[in-house]
């Protein structure tokens, strides 16, 4: 059973748990968690990368990138939030509450990232590194040594598979563009397109820009598979 780390400054934890929708209804609550989310996202990218680099010495750059991508995606971070009981602690506005924000993978993911950012400000990098290792290493090992083919499939995400195809076919990386965003702040949905050599190959939607891009890559791969191009 995982538990949230202890904070010396409880106000940082409270801010990490505070969604924009709550501040909109309670201006006296102070700052919402989006800046902490930005910091936590950057820290997770670095710390998870460091853990993987040191633990899996025989892995190539491409393998490490794929594994990190699977570990820090929305669904996995939302699972960590659920394990830590973050959903019931989040401070949400009435609209987000009515939209089942406590079970929303996007909000759970964002709040987890905000807590990582807050914990860093509260305790510096060493305790955060230890916390990340405890959470992420068992999941990383399960992806590398899966009990079924489904576990192995998670290791290679759609963006990496499409990038490999684009590099092999054209010698170019895909380019992603967010072409639309709609919905209230607590339930945004983004639309992305992916291009190679100026040609659009896929479209995808998601609650986060990263997920919209992944879905665009999946759409591109599905379209390539039909005529047997991959």
TrEMBL record:
PROSITE patterns in the cross-refs: DS_RBD (PS50137), RNASE_3_1 (PS00517), RNASE_3_2 (PS50142)
Active-site residue numbers: 41, 113
Summary of subunit composition and partner proteins: Homodimer.
Major place of residence: cytoplasm
Lineage, broadest ranks: Bacteria, Bacillati, Cyanobacteriota, Cyanophyceae, Oscillatoriophycideae
Cited CDD domains: DSRM_RNAse_III_family, RIBOc
Residue ranges annotated for the RNase III domain, each copy included: 7-124
Enzyme class per UniProt: hydrolase
Protein name: Ribonuclease 3
């Amino acid at each position: 059973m995982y538990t949230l780390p202890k904070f010396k400054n409880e106000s940082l934890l409270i801010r990490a748990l505070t969604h924009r929708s709550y501040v909109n209804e309670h201006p006296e609550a102070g700052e919402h968690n989006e800046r902490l989310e930005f910091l936590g996202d950057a820290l997770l990218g670095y710390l998870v990368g460091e853990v993987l680099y040191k633990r899996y010495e025989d892995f190539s750059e491409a393998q490490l990138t794929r594994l990190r991508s699977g570990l820090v995606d929305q669904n996995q971070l939302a699972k960590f939030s659920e394990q830590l009981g973050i959903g019931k602690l989040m401070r949400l506005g009435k609209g987000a509450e009515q939209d089942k924000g406590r079970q929303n993978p996007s909000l759970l993911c964002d709040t987890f990232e905000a807590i990582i950012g807050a914990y860093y400000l509260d305790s510096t990098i060493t305790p955060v590194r230890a916390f990340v290792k405890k959470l992420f290493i068992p999941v990383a090992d399960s992806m590398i040594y899966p009990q079924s083919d489904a576990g192995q499939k998670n290791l290679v995400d759609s963006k990496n598979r499409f990038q490999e195809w684009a590099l092999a076919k054209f010698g170019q990386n895909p380019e992603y563009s967010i072409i639309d965003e709609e919905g209230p702040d607590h339930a945004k949905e983004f639309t992305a397109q992916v291009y190679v050599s100026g040609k659009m190959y896929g479209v995808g939607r998601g609650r986060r820009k990263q997920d919209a891009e992944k879905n665009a890559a999946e759409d591109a791969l599905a379209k390539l598979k039909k005529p047997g191009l991959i």
